Amino acid sequence: MNSGTVAGLWLRLLLLPLLHSRFTQQELPACKPILTPQWVISAFAVVSIIFVPIGVASLLASRDVVEIVYRYDSDCVPASWASDKLAYIQNPNISKTCTRTLTVPKRMKSPIYVYYQLDNFYQNHRRYVKSRNDWQLRDASKANDTSGCDPEDAAGGNPIVPCGLIAWSLFNDTYRFTVSNSNLPVNKKGISWKSDRDHKFGKDVYPRNFQNGTVIGGAKLNSSIPLSEQEDLIVWMRTAALPTFRKLYGKIEVDLQANQTITVTIENYYNTYEFGGKKKLVLSTASWLGGKNDFLGLAYLIVGGLCFFLAAVFTIIYLVKPRKLGDPTYLSWNRNPGGH
Fold this sequence. Notes:
Layout: H1 3-19, H2 37-64, E1 67-71, H3 85-90, E2 97-103, E3 112-119, H4 126-130, H5 134-138, E4 154-155, E5 158-159, H6 165-168, E6 174-179, E7 182-184, H7 194-200, H8 231-237, E8 245-252, E9 261-267, E10 278-284, H9 295-320, H10 332-335
Antiparallel strand pairs: 1-10, 2-9, 3-8, 3-10, 4-5, 6-7, 6-9
């Protein structure tokens, strides 16, 4: 008997108890709940009792959020250029400054979050999402590594930092706010994720050979500030999953009273006209649940209401036409003794 045969026998002897154990033979004690009418009714009732209050609380929290949404991509185009908006945005000799007034509908408690919203902008496009180099963003020694950044990888034969389509298309509209002729400062610190600032964008990585903020492309970057402190870029580089999205622009840290008038000066530079996109300025407060979104509350209410309805229906059926559990008279051969 050779060594291989001996090893095989020992292996079989070791595995034999395992193969014939109660676990592998599925002989362990088991409990299978019987779904009696009482259990089903109770389950639906418990779900409705839990979900309905959560839905009401979520909906009330969403309704407490005060939000101002203003679409300006069309409104900020001069009437003489209304028929050719693309030529307007691409002409560097035309002023892009637009001043509008907004009225506060209800008291807005600080902090008031300032967002820009883009519609019909597909940041989730496969080529767009991949057009970046994360090593270059966080490590100064990788500044020459522009792999994956095509077509925005080099300028005049020199590597672009940060490279790629995402950085190149950085949003470059700006907003200034005044109330009663007093400047309303917007705090742009802390608008990005701390984990992104600490781990994804290097403290020793500085912009190089980046675009100059012309009509082609997006915003320009300050070459003397490291990427970890360029929070507008960090916010923009976290790509959105849907074609309509909001990104945080800054925070207003004073309260605004009802019926106050806010004067907004918009620098309308970002070209969304070429692909039929929309631009909106959003001012919003926040609740314990976040921003204004009725979906979560409505979802809880619908599920809770449906469970309550089913619990009521099953209760009525059980009371009107009760049925004894395990009654053999309901078996087909007992109901049709002749086999028909």
